[in-house]
Write a structure and sequence with these properties.
It is a single chain. The chain folds into three domains: about 35 residues; about 110 residues, no CATH class; about 160 residues, Rossmann fold, CATH 3.40.50. About 35% of the residues lie in helices and about 25% in strands. It contains ten helices and 17 strands. It has a six-stranded mixed beta sheet, with helices on both faces. The protein has a five-stranded antiparallel beta sheet with strand order 6-5-13-2-15, with helices on one face. The radius of gyration is 27 Å and the shape is globular.
Length: about 375
C-alpha cells in the first residue's frame, strides 16, 4: 500500500513539473530578455484632426486664412500642421504624403524637433472625402407635439448638405434605432426620416454615446447633429462620459433643442457645455421656424470650418491632453476660435526595435 501511495505521489510530482516547468522557463526567458536586450518602444499615434471655426465679434465667418495663420499646441508643446483645408475645399497635405503615420512619428521622435513629418496617403484620403454626419432624432414621448415639423426640418437639412458628405440617420427614445447607416443616398435617408414614430421615454445620453462610438469607427471628419425635444429621463450614462469620448475621437456635437429642454436649467447647461467642449454649438428653438434656422446655421458652420490636423510630437502624458489653437499676428487676434479643447488617447500601438548587440547580464534565477 505504501509503495502504491509513493508511486502515485511521484507521478503527481512529475505531472506538476511537466505542467509548470514551461511557465518557469518562460519567466526566466522574459527576465533574461529584460536585462540583455535593449528594446526601444516607439509609440504609434493617430492623426489628430481639428474642426476650427473662426468668427469676428459679430459672429460672421472669417475666410481666406492660411496654414501659417494658426498655431497649435498640445499640453503646451507646439505642433506642426500636417493637413489643411477650408470649408468644402479639398484638404491638402502640407508635406510629403508617402510615409506612414508611424514613420512620421518615429522620425519626429528621432529628430526631436518634429520637422519633416509626412502625411500618410490613407490619412489624407480620409480627410479629403468630406464629412461624416450622424443625425440623431428624438422620437420619445416628448415629441408628440411638432413631430412632423421636426421631420421636415431634418429632411431639409439632409438635402442641403454637400454631396461629398456621408450622412447617417438614427433615432432614439429609450433605445437607439439605426434607421439609415452612413450613405451618400439622400433618398434612402429621407425614407428613414419619414419612417420614424414617437414612443417611449428619452435616454438621450445612452443613445448619444452609442452614436459617438459608431462615429469613432469612421476615419476622417465626424459630426453628430442631435435634435432633442426635452430633457433626458431614462439614461444611466452621465453626459460627461459622452463629452469626453466625443472629444477624444474628434467628433463635434451640435444640439438643437426645443423650448421644452430650454425650460430645464440642468439640461440647458449640459447641452451648452457638451457642444462647446467638442467644438460644436447648442441651439434652443422656440418654434419650427427656429428649428429650420438652427439646421441652416449648422450647415453653414460645416461649410466654413477650417480642417487642421497634426501628428502629436512625443508627449509622456497618457491621460487628458489639452489642445490650444490660436491665430498668429496682431491683425488676427480680434477674431474668435471655436474647436475642441483636448482629447484622451484612445488606442495606442507599440512597435519594438531590438539593438543588434545584447548587453551582458546575470542569468535568470
Amino acid at each position: 500500500m505504501k509503495k502504491t501511495m509513493r508511486s502515485l505521489t511521484n507521478r503527481r510530482f512529475f505531472s506538476f513539473l511537466c505542467l509548470f516547468l514551461p511557465v518557469f522557463a518562460c519567466f526566466g526567458t522574459w527576465t533574461w530578455a529584460q536585462v540583455t536586450v535593449d528594446q526601444r518602444i516607439h509609440i504609434v499615434v493617430d492623426l489628430v484632426q481639428l474642426n476650427v471655426a473662426v468668427t469676428d465679434r459679430k459672429g460672421n465667418y472669417v475666410t481666406g486664412l492660411r496654414p501659417e495663420d494658426f498655431a497649435i499646441t498640445e499640453d503646451g508643446i507646439p505642433q506642426k500642421t500636417a493637413t489643411f483645408g477650408e470649408g468644402n475645399e479639398q484638404v491638402r497635405g502640407l508635406a510629403d504624403t508617402t510615409a506612414s503615420p508611424d514613420e512620421a512619428v518615429a522620425q519626429s521622435a528621432s529628430q526631436g524637433s518634429g520637422s519633416g513629418q509626412r502625411v500618410s496617403a490613407a490619412d489624407l484620403s480620409s480627410l479629403v472625402a468630406g464629412a461624416n454626419v450622424f443625425v440623431l432624432f428624438d422620437t420619445s414621448n416628448y415629441m408628440y407635439r411638432g413631430f412632423v415639423f421636426a421631420q421636415d426640418a431634418i429632411a431639409d437639412f439632409v438635402r442641403s448638405l454637400e454631396s461629398a458628405d456621408k450622412v447617417a440617420f438614427y433615432s432614439y427614445s429609450r433605445d437607439l434605432s439605426r434607421n439609415t447607416l452612413l450613405t451618400f443616398d439622400r433618398s434612402q435617408l429621407l425614407r428613414g426620416v419619414r419612417s420614424t414614430v414617437a414612443g417611449d421615454n428619452a435616454a438621450l445620453y445612452n443613445c448619444l454615446l452609442l452614436t459617438v462610438k459608431d462615429a469613432a469607427k469612421v476615419p476622417g471628419r465626424k459630426v453628430v447633429v442631435v435634435f432633442s425635444n426635452g430633457p433626458d429621463n431614462a439614461s444611466v450614462v452621465p453626459p460627461e462620459d459622452v463629452a469626453e469620448l466625443a472629444q477624444s475621437t474628434g467628433t463635434a456635437i451640435y444640439m438643437i433643442s426645443t423650448n421644452q429642454a430650454h425650460l430645464e436649467p440642468i439640461s440647458t447647461a449640459v447641452f451648452e457645455r457638451m457642444t462647446a467642449a467638442t467644438g460644436g454649438k447648442a441651439y434652443f428653438a422656440k418654434s419650427w421656424k427656429d428649428e429650420e434656422r438652427a439646421f441652416a446655421s449648422i450647415r453653414d458652420d460645416l461649410a466654413h470650418l477650417y480642417s487642421l490636423s497634426y501628428y502629436p510630437r512625443p508627449n509622456p502624458n497618457r491621460g487628458w491632453r489639452a489642445i490650444t489653437v490660436k491665430l498668429v499676428g496682431d491683425r488676427l487676434k480680434k477674431y474668435r476660435i471655436r474647436t475642441r479643447d483636448g482629447y484622451r488617447p484612445q488606442s495606442v500601438g507599440f512597435s519594438t526595435a531590438t539593438a543588434p548587440e545584447p548587453v551582458a547580464g546575470p542569468t535568470a534565477p
